[in-house]
Amino acid sequence: MTRSHRLAALLGALVLAATGCTSGSADDGGIDLPDPVVETEVATPIDYVALGDSFSAGPLIGTMRSDPTGCARSKDNYPAFVADWLDVTSYTDVTCSAATTVDLYEPMLMFDGNTAPPQLDAVTRGTDLVTLGMGGNDFGIYDSLIRCQGSAAADCPVAQLRDDTGKVAARVEKAVRRILRAAPDARVLVVGYPDILPTEGTCNAVGVPADVLGPVAEVAGLLNDALATGAEDGGGEYVDIEAVSEGHDVCAKGRAWVNGPRFRVGVAAPFHPKINGMRAVATEVFRQVTGEDPAEVTEYAEPDPDAIVLNAG
């Protein structure tokens, strides 16, 4: 059975059991009456592990998890919504702000000075579903893009950034292969980054001229291309968030899925997804896993407390 078929079987929760027909007696006039059809709900476990950086962790969105505090991981990030809507049996979230693909394999120094274990330690042979959302911190790509916003367009190292984003594909491919080695039956979804900045024009929330944003948007698109290539080459799947987030960048005002340049405690870190952005990403992940829309897009994430695996820290 393939990984996708196995997970589809896990999501098939309703089984109809029919016992057939019996002959009638003299009391019922000799009419054959069918036995009642009994619907039995079969609980089928899904063990879900979320790996990723701050765009998966959700720094400053609502309440932060304390396991560990140094990852700035929200209780309302997209993995939490996915775990809630899929009603998983086990939910392990090791996403961590500032993580790179290196932190999949090595301990990571967090913001508070403590160390988080390698994220891949959370993946086991029993894992059924993995989401992986990272790559933007590799080679300092996103840091460079932020610096580009404060520079003249000519000062942005676009050529170097193009080269660096190309290298991300191989790193993502390696990551997906390592995940599948640890969990051979798992379905691995590589989650892309949303549009943060407008592809045309600018606004006060960005604060720089449109000609500066052109190279930045180009590199951001190349990064998502690299994630898609790495996912496919590694044997995983790609969830395209860039496409659905068009028109929801920082200049979209009330329709924006991402925060502007200010730290807003309870809302989001600068140029990071807000809770509505996290719900949107979770919706796309859910669609990819099930082929359907969520039955209910909830305001907040409420995965089963008994399913949540607390991490050391």
UniProtKB/TrEMBL annotation:
Disulfide bonds: C71-C96, C148-C156, C203-C251
Keywords for this protein: Disulfide bond, Signal
Stretches assigned to the SGNH hydrolase-type esterase domain: 50-279
Signal peptide: 1-26
SUPFAM superfamilies: SGNH hydrolase
Catalytic-site annotation from UniProt: S54 (nucleophile), H272
Any GO BP: triglyceride catabolic process
Keyword Signal: yes
GO molecular function, one term: triacylglycerol lipase activity
InterPro entries in the cross-refs: SEST-like, SGNH_hydro, SGNH_hydro_sf
Pfam families (alphabetical): Lipase_GDSL_2 (PF13472)
Record's protein name: Lysophospholipase L1-like esterase
Organism: Nocardioides cavernae
